[in-house]
Amino acid sequence: MNLLDAHLVPAVDGVAYGLLLFVVAAGLSLAFGTAGVLNLSHGMLYAIGAYTGAELSDGTWGGLAVGLAAGTAAAAAAGAGLSAATVPLARRGHLAQALLTFGLALIGGNLLIEFFGADELPVRVPEALDSSVTLLGHRYPAYRLCFILMAVLLAAFGTWVLTRTRVGAAVRASADDPQMLATTGHSPRAVHTGVLAAAGALAGAAGVLGAPIIGPGAGTADTVLMLSLVVVVLGGLRSLWMTFFAAIAVGEVQTLGVSLAPDWAPYLLFAAMAAVLILRSQFTEPATAGHGGGDAGSDPVEWLRRRLSASFKERGRGRGTAEADGAVRSSGRGGPLSRLPRGGPDDSTLASRGRQAAPLLILLVVLIALPALLDAYSLSLAGSALALGLLAVSVTILTGYAGLPTLGQTAPFAVGAYATANLADAGWTVGPVQIVVAAIAAALFSVVTGPAVIRARGTTVLMITLAIGELASAAINQMKSVTGGADGLVGFPPTQALWGGEGMIEEDQVYNYALVVAVVAVVATIAVLRSPAGKLLTGSRNAEARMRASGHPVGRYLFMAHIGAGALAGIGGSLMVTVQQYLSPADVGFEIAAFALLAAVIGGSTSVIGGLLGAGLIVFTRDWVASSWPGHGPLLLGALFVAAVYLLPRGLAGLRLGTGARGPAKGAELPPGHDSVPAGKVAP
Amino acid sequence: MTAVPDVPDAPRVLDLKNLTRRYGSLTAVDDVSLQLAAGARHAVIGPNGAGKTTLLNLIAGTDRPDHGTIALGGADITRTATAKRSRLGIARSFQQPSVIGELSVLDNIVLAGWRHHPLRRGAWRRPSRYRQHEESAARHLEAVGLAGSARRPAADLSHGQRRMLDLAAALAGDPRLLLLDEPAAGLTDGDIGRLLSILGGLPESVAIILVEHHVEVVAELAETVTVLAAGKVLITGPTAEALAHPEVRDAYHATSGASRDAVEARG
Question: pTM for this one?
């Protein structure tokens, strides 16, 4: 009884919080489940409602009603606008749409702050509700009880519309088969617009009513988006009831959890999300069947047994191999290969190699010349761009080559960064040592997270990696002894380029060091991707079912790629620490993850050099351009995001290749091979 | 139920026992048992939705049965992963030809044969080994008549060429059991002729399960036939006998008439 007594208020708060999340998440789920748009600007729609409500509320019932109507309408209009914006991308699949909405969210968030200011707006509730009632001997705000009631009504109304009306039937039909719907005289376009508008209305209404709970402020959109993503992931897409229970659970974790176990609450949410995603491998995006046979190595004992038996067989086969070797050799000259026609675009003649390497060489020359061209501040920014560039290349490997679009590469990036900072603090200032330790630490981290990432495909990966990134952020804030918490780390000794050298203090020294490390890392990456190993990854992404049917352990390849990409991100993190000489959680936060994905997208998802250029462009936009127009960094980046998604389906590298002899390669759009025939599709 | 009643002592390459696969309330494959001897040429026919492709998916490992067992050469593989089954000697073609569009035709076959090549170790980082892989891949391409397109990106191929590439990818692993999912669908008569000669020229030890709608392809290739209807085995027996079964004749009357016309037109 005591326990209940002490925690009654947070528990009831949790219900209110959960219902709020349920209404928001229902909109997100509606948009994703039936219109196929993973709306990363859904939090912004909530913020639109919340700001409108806060502006119009004046402490009267009328003010609340006007605010509710205006906020809902504004968010619904924004949702409809979103529908119009995604139409040109309909053929490009879920990822392109998700990226577009992310860019729009950046822009919208910036505009909202522009109009309403960066501070949280005060919200006035009707006076009749601005009091408290007594609940089992506790005083409790009346508004929250009233909100619980209103949210239940809203949820019931939404459910009724979806399941009992013609409109709802059309919506559900459009999720299953838009073409069949079209033959019955409904326009799928109209349904698409209607669904996104309704999703926006839900978010807007929740924003107005929920403003006293999650108020309108600079971080509102992000918080709401993250939490409702968690709800959608936990609840799945098929059942409103599951979404409801997930929402209540998340609400309780955020309130009761925080009051019961403040240290663990932040982990709990995202750990639960990751766990659910891993366990429920059938959670896939709509209209895309699950990837077949995703059970490679699911049983470690079985795996070990197979490994051992395979290696024994290998030994026994030694002689046979030698013979076959000889046989192949003897037929080498004049064999069938020499009878094949030469030439063609794929041929690796010297000339075509030179053409492929040319942009890289030009970039290298420019980068080497930079110290002579730039002032010290800009040069250190260029150094950061190199570090971010390695992160972007790492994202490119995963997104473009392995087909796993990631928002979580900042996690290994952070591991490398904090490892380096702590090493330096402990007196290990030799650069190569820092780099190697950072790479190993990040690779080990990726070994742990890999199984969660490689089993999913498409936008689900985006959600899982988002959870991993958030989990890492939560850990960084908690483990203050290692990470310095929110204050970050500063004051560790500078890195030495080599053993016995002096610590590097001058910007050009640091830059040159960063350049050498980055060049070595990038050249090694390109060498691996150009080798047959790169073809294995391309095959796994392009035709996973074929690769599996030909005996390739696709999961293992993706795992290796994930580890390699993690190590590369770790090196990037190490470089960033060396260049900046300080480290704060913001350097490895969600924003950086989004930038890295943007860089990979701008750069063309299968181009290493494109990723580097994209990173450079982003740092240029964020730090040079935005410094002359302060406070508009997100706006510029959002615009860059949107422009990249619309104009550069294959990124900067696409521009370069578009003029070349290759012509448009089919299926190389973003994400390559993702929305083509789903691998392992089951046809009963 | 035995597809090869005449040779009971022949070594069995495949042994399906009571396979059942349900999707919700739909039973796609219902208690199907089948035994194939090494080198058997077996066709599975039936109307759309009869469970033919599901049966192939169960054998290939992309789908798992709810009941029943699958044994390959006497060893149980019911729970074995797809990739491992491939290495044990099961190869397949896909209903929708599955090619790696971004890579060259030759690379497609190199990747398909990679895990079965005696020199697979280290090929991912040793160009000389990769070169040897290319030699054997080129031989497989010649066999399906794609040698002239070896250096082109696979995305450029026509539908018929993609089918041939898919078939070559299946053959690149030198399988002992070859699963073909409607290999003749969408092919021209000329391509079908080539397909028949390729499949006819396979080593006698290779067992084939052919899912096909073209009756003349079935009649030409298969020694034995299983007819599926609504997931159940309607009849299993020698090709002529199975095709002469009244229910099969009814189901295929229109189709076989049309294809007979096609054969006559060709001949």
Answer: 0.78
CA distances from B168 to A108, A543, B112, B139 (A): 52, 15, 9, 10
Coil vs helix vs strand at A290 = coil
Rg (CA), chain A: 27
Instruction: Tell me the two tokens of residue B252.
Output: 């295929």
Render A523-550 in DSSP notation, one character per residue. Answer: HHHHHHHHSHHHHHHHHHHH-HHHHHHT
Please, what's the b/e burial string for A435-467 (b: 16 or more CB within 10 A of its CB; e: otherwise)?
bebbbebbbebbeebbebbbbbbbbbbbbbbbb
> Residues 6 or more apart from A620 whose CB is under 8 A from it?
A385
Contact A531 B94 (CB under 8 A): no
For residue A248, give every residue at least 6 positions away whose Cβ sits within 8 Å of its Cβ, in sequence order, or none.
Answer: A14, A15, A18, A19, A22
Residue B144's closest CA among B160, B168, B162, B163?
Answer: B168
Q: From CA A471, how far away is CA A212, in angstroms rounded?
A: 27
| Cis previous bond, A671, omega within 30 | yes
Contact list, B166 vs chain A (CB under 8 Å)? 546
The complex scores an ipTM of 0.86
Are B92 and B101 in contact, with CB atoms under 8 Å apart?
no
Amino acid at A490: V
Question: How close B220 gets to chain A, by Cα (Å)?
Answer: 26
Structural domain boundaries in chain A: 2-279, 360-658
Q: What is the DSSP letter of A234?
A: H
Phi and psi based region of residue B12 (left: phi greater than 0; alpha: psi -120 to 50; beta: remaining): beta
Q: How far is B128 from chain A (nearest CA, A)?
A: 10
Give A168: exposed, middle or buried? Use CB within 10 Å, 0-12, 13-18, 19+.
middle
Calpha distance B113→A76 (Å, rounded): 54
- Contact yes or no for B151 and A341 at CB 8 A: yes
Q: How many CA atoms lie within 13 A of A662 on its CB side?
A: 22
Contact A666 B101 (CB under 8 A): yes
pLDDT in tens, chain B (267 residues): 444 444 455 568 899 999 999 887 888 888 999 999 888 899 998 888 888 889 999 999 888 899 899 999 888 888 888 888 998 889 999 988 888 888 889 889 988 888 887 777 766 667 777 788 888 888 888 888 888 888 888 888 888 889 999 999 999 888 999 999 988 888 888 888 888 989 888 888 899 999 988 888 888 888 999 988 888 888 888 888 888 888 777 766 544 444 444 444 443
In the sheet with B67-72, reading across from the earlier edge strand, the strands are B26-37, B12-23, B67-72, B75-76
Q: Which residues of A touch B119 (CB under 8 A)?
A: 321, 324-325, 328
Q: Do B170 and A684 touch (CB under 8 A)?
A: no
Work out the number of other CB atoms within 10 angstroms of the CB of residue A305: 11
Q: Which residues contact A609 (CB under 8 A, 6 or more apart)?
A: A359, A360, A363, A603, A653
Closest Cβ opposite residue A331 in set B61, B95, B135? B135
First to last CA, chain B: 36
| Interchain contact, B54 vs A317, CB within 8 Å | no
Nearest to A45 by CA among A23, A18, A16, A13: A23
Do B82 and A538 lie within an 8 Å CB cutoff?
Answer: no
CB–CB of A147/A205 below 8 Å? no
Instruction: Supply B185's token pair.
Output: 């669908």
**In whole angstroms, what is the distance from residue A369 CA to residue A180 CA?**
60
Distance from CA of A543 to the nearest CA of B (A): 5
Pick from A293, A329, A335, A225: nearest CA to A552 = A293
Closest by alpha carbon to B59, among B39, B41, B25, B86?
Answer: B86
The C-alpha of A335 sits at a distance from chain B's nearest C-alpha, in angstroms, of 7
Architecture of domain A360-658: Orthogonal Bundle (1.10)
**β partners of residue B14:** B36, B72
